[in-house]
């Protein structure tokens, strides 16, 4: 069984708060019995705050909820070599 990997979709803003997040699309895994209804978006804070409250926030949203709660800002940036 080979699980799908998240695909970067870019920078989004939460409609209610304006908080900026990086979003990744995670397609369902048919080998594990999942259906299209299991497709979702994973969000990670654009800037991680590693202070007293931990290292930021993340979320998992079904596709329909994500489209209502977030607006697109910009496409994903190409990634260079790690550490550069």
SSE series: EEEEHE
How helix-rich are the residues, as a percent range?
Answer: under 10%
**Structural class of the helix and strand makeup?**
mainly beta
What general outline do the C-alpha atoms trace?
globular
State the assembly state of the protein chains: single chain
Instruction: Note the total helix count.
Output: 1
Number of strands: 5
Report on the biggest sheet: 5 strands, antiparallel
Q: Strands of the biggest beta sheet: in what spatial order?
A: 4-3-2-1-5
Low confidence ranges: none
Mean pLDDT: 87
Strand content: 35-45%
Radius of gyration: 14 Å
Distance between the termini: 34 Å
Overview of the structural elements:
With 84 residues, this protein is mainly beta. The chain has 1 helix and 5 strands; from the N terminus they run ββββαβ. A 5-stranded antiparallel β-sheet has the order 4-3-2-1-5, covered by helices on one side. The protein is globular, with a radius of gyration of 14 Å. The mean pLDDT is 87.
């Amino acid at each position: 069984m080979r699980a799908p990997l998240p695909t970067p979709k870019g920078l989004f803003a939460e409609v209610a708060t304006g908080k900026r997040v990086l979003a990744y699309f995670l397609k369902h895994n048919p080998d594990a019995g999942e259906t299209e209804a299991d497709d979702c978006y994973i969000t990670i804070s654009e800037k991680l705050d590693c202070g007293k409250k931990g290292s930021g926030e993340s979320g998992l949203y079904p596709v329909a909820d994500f489209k209502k709660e977030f607006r697109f800002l910009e496409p994903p940036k190409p990634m260079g070599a790690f550490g550069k």
